[in-house]
Amino acid sequence: MTNVTVIGSQWGDEGKGKIVDWLSSRADTVVRFQGGHNAGHTLVIDGTEYKLSLLPSGIVRKGKMSVIGNGVVVDPNALLDEIERVAKKGVEISPENLKLADNAHLILPVHQAVDKAFEAARGKSSIGTTGRGIGPTYEDKVARRGIRVCDLRDKDLLKEKVERLMVHHNALLKGLGAEEITPESVMEGLNKISDKILSFACPVWKILDEAKTKGQRILFEGAQGFMLDVDHGTYPFVTSSNTVAAQAATGAGVGPKTAGYVLGITKAYTTRVGSGPFPTGFWRSREIPRRFGFCTGLPFP
Prior knowledge:
Adenylosuccinate Synthetase, subunit A, domain 2; 2 domains; seven-stranded parallel beta sheet; two-stranded antiparallel sheet; alpha/beta; Adenylosuccinate Synthetase, Chain A, domain 1
């Protein structure tokens, strides 16, 4: 099997990072396809620890292509900070080995403000979000008012979109008793980082299609676990994206067969972070792998 998709079969924190790191050493391209910087992997290579949230695990290995797919919502400042932090540990990161989908949606400071304001308003009924603006960004994406990476190329159009976006969000912030944010401050922040972000931007679906045509090995790296899937998880105490293997295709712009071998990672004990129900037992251990078609054994021999 050429390609492998690794996902968590519980609520995340199953130790996917170790498996993904082992597989990334054998892959040609490593792809993030969903989520944001609310989850990630910790890798230890030759005694050096790397904490990755947005960057795919392949970034720490030479000669690997790392791809952030369109299914990921990207905080541009968090991405640049992570690049700088990892680069200080001797990892070479450039547009040659890191590709960012130009149709990925951007997390803006207003998304974080709205996220925190809603959680505060829910009180004891809070969902337990990280407050990093991931949910509101996915909401804007579905509502067709989101700001995408490619929008940074046209300043005039970007300004129009930001102004339209802020009409919506400032109404929410005002209603929640939070401080409003001006479109000008949002534009100022985006203008400062747009050139750096755009240097990594490209149509990643094309790169992945070419890799598939050449027979290269592609590793799709999932975040969180399937019981946090927005459709199949313990709704509403879930994340804002689909975490199941099928999202690898949609979140990277490839055909469904490209996902290849699906490897669901499970740990012997169960934990979850945040709020929500916590079912355990026989159903989890037997029914979930059967229902979602997880494979056993190890790919990439």
